[in-house]
Design goal:
Number of helices: 7
Number of strands: 15
Shape: globular
Bound molecules: pyridoxal-5'-phosphate
CATH superfamily of the largest domain: D-amino Acid Aminotransferase, subunit A, domain 2
Largest sheet: 9 strands, mixed
Distance between the termini: 28 Å
Strand content: 25-35%
Radius of gyration: 19 Å
Number of domains: 2
Order of helices and strands: EEHEEHHEEEHEEEEHEHEEEH
CATH topology of the largest domain: D-amino Acid Aminotransferase, Chain A, domain 2
Helix content: 25-40%
Length: about 280
């Protein structure tokens, strides 16, 4: 079956889809994106993703390409036209649109919108290795910008080392986050920790859901930075993200975390999160 994508007002076959060479996303990475999980054909935490899209767009003064309601319709239409009734993801990207190449914003712009969807089988509970690398990103990591070179390089470094993810570390030795996920640990004393929200990290929609689920289950947590050494001495570690859900981290820089297997907090939070995904569809 031909994949169908949405590009600037039209639904077109994937292999025919194209954007202009002077799209500012292409020339300046002047754009933002969201990845939304699809569980059994339904969008997971759609409103959270659209709220964050709004944050990214407004911080960069990029206009919404169309109304939130129209965007919701398009997301569903792309899912429907691709017969995505199982698990998968929707990718949406908004750029400042097409303009003659010049760094400053054009006087007027028409935001460009691309939406794609694809099937995906979510990983379920297998532990992964992470490496630690310096965080070389800009100081606005709260914006989900399409400018992802440090993340691309970090993820490739992880792959080259036989690991799945790289945890980026700030100049103070504290872990910020992964290249496409948020970082968590459970200390020896059983304290669940993830870094507090600031411009140093992306406030993951999965992160927010897991914190709500932990609150609901009366699991104590603390939002604060943690060091690489603290992570290596932790009882458990895991990552959260739209495509990785809640994935246990069993080794950091080759050293086992705890007993080197999925921990019980992690397994519990993954089970809660899987149920949360299954309960989607009530959002409109
Ligand atoms: C740098 C970074 N941090 C965290 C996340 C996790 O965010 P979310 O849970 O919204 O997918 C992502 C997701 O792509 C990311 O790119």
């Amino acid at each position: 079956m031909t994949r169908i994508v949405y590009v600037n007002g039209r639904y077109v076959p994937h292999h025919e889809a194209a954007v202009h060479i002077e799209d500012r996303g292409y020339q300046f990475a002047d754009g933002v994106y969201e990845v939304i999980a699809v569980r059994r054909g339904r969008l997971v935490d759609e409103n959270g993703h659209l709220d964050r899209l709004n944050h990214s767009l407004s911080e960069l003064r990029i206009g919404w390409p169309l109304s939130r309601r129209a965007l919701k319709f398009i997301l569903r239409e792309v899912i429907r036209r691709n017969r995505l009734n199982g698990d998968g993801m929707v990718y949406l990207q908004v750029t400042r649109g097409v303009a003659p190449r010049s760094h400053a914003f054009p006087d007027h712009h028409e935001s460009a919108l691309v939406v794609t969807a694809r099937r995906l089988r979510f990983l379920q509970g297998d532990g992964v290795d992470v490496i630690t690398i310096p965080d070389i990103r800009w100081k606005r990591c709260d914006i989900k910008s399409i400018s992802l070179l440090p993340n691309v390089l970090g993820k490739q470094q992880a792959k080259d080392s036989g690991a799945s993810e790289a945890w980026m570390v700030d100049s103070g030795g504290q872990v910020t986050e992964g290249t496409l996920s948020n970082a968590w640990i459970v200390t020896e004393r059983g304290e669940l920790i993830t870094r507090d929200v600031s411009r140093a990290i992306l406030n993951g929609i999965t992160r927010q859901a897991v914190l709500r689920l932990a609150t609901g289950a009366e699991i104590a947590f603390s939002e604060r930075p943690f060091t690489v050494n603290e992570a290596k001495a932790a009882r458990e570690a895991f990552i959260t993200g739209t495509t990785v859900l809640v994935t246990p981290v069993v080794r950091i820089d080759g050293e086992p975390v705890g007993n080197g297997r999925t921990g019980k907090f992690t397994a519990k939070l993954l089970a809660f999160y899987a149920r949360h995904m299954d309960n989607q569809g009530k959002e409109t």
